[in-house]
Amino acid sequence: MKKTLLLSAFAFAAIGAMAQTDITPARYNFAAQEVGPYAFDEFITGANPAANYAAAVEKFNDGYIVGNNGQFGNENVVNRFKSGTNIIDLPGAGKVLCIKGAASTYEYGTPMNDALPPNWFNLSFYLAPGSHAVEQKVRFRLVFRLLRNTPELTKNVLNLDAYTYRNDSYVTNFATGDEATEFDKANAGKFWGSGDFIARYEDDNSPMEDDEGNMFYADEWQVNEFDWSAANEDGIPFRYVMHWNNENIGEYVVLIKELKVIADPEGEPVVEKIKVEGGDVDGIEAVEAAIKRAECYDLFGRRATNASGIVIEGGKKIVK
């Protein structure tokens, strides 16, 4: 009897150990990459790699990353995009993937050396062959920021999706179907914009503004997760896809802290804002970072340059 119980305990332990597995290809761990240009495997004209794209399997090397754009057949356009796509060590956040438009005034990262035509591109991040199985649940997680020189409340430009190897889409082919959960239906297909990252009052969700009526960004990152599984063998491996649509990236910067893929994930997927830590901020940079994080308001609720009047505590306006 004791022997049976002991074997059962080992069985449960083994099942528990297999419950959740990080299957993220090594090249998508941006924190572990060298600072400098980010390496892509291929650039292709058109919206997507072909279905059953053999190169993504045959040439897979700790990742396989494909850029698509209507003019990526032009080497000059490809080099333009690559010039503004780099791993940077961002103060207070650590290493991130930075995609920075030619006209972006964001203080960190290298901008593209010229405007990128046309007003869209797609980036595909393939998973490793054999990293997940048919009907095995896979969770995709992205932690990112999306900033524009001047925040725009109505322009939404970035959609997050996943595709099977045969090019079925999570957003188009699954998340609107009968098997989709309420979470899928509510969140899939959302296009994110710079307005999603501005500072807002907690009590009424209205934008915070400075004393000249300008909006400013919150010190938060967006987490976007969703779960999916391949219904058939020819759907493996998945690829994670970032769609940039309907707006020239010129004045934007996209900062990606984390791209993670988990097989047999625990708990439920989330869509939420978080604060991140990492990187070295010291000396003058520490003072500048602290000043930028300060939230001071005058008696009319407008952003001020000193700590008199109104301050923010827990996202609410408090008279000081």
Write structural notes for this entry:
- It contains 6 helices and 17 strands.
- With 320 residues, the protein is α+β, with helices and mostly antiparallel strands.
- The strands form 3 sheets. Strands 1, 2, 5, 6, 8, 11, 13 and 14 form an 8-stranded antiparallel β-sheet that branches.
- Strand 5 (85-90) and strand 6 form a beta hairpin.
Q: What's the story with the biggest beta sheet?
A: 8 strands, antiparallel
Q: What proportion of the residues is helical, as a percent range?
A: 10-25%
Count of DSSP strands: 17
Beta-strand percentage range: 25-35%
The shape is: globular
SSE diagram, text form:
Elements: H1 2-17, E1 21-22, E2 36-37, E3 42-45, H2 55-58, E4 64-69, H3 75-83, E5 85-90, E6 94-100, E7 121-126, E8 138-148, E9 158-163, H4 170-174, H5 182-187, E10 191-192, E11 221-228, E12 239-244, E13 252-263, E14 271-274, H6 283-293, E15 296-297, E16 310-313, E17 316-319
Parallel strand pairs: 3-4
Antiparallel strand pairs: 1-13, 2-5, 4-7, 5-6, 6-13, 7-12, 8-11, 8-13, 9-10, 9-12, 11-14, 15-16, 16-17
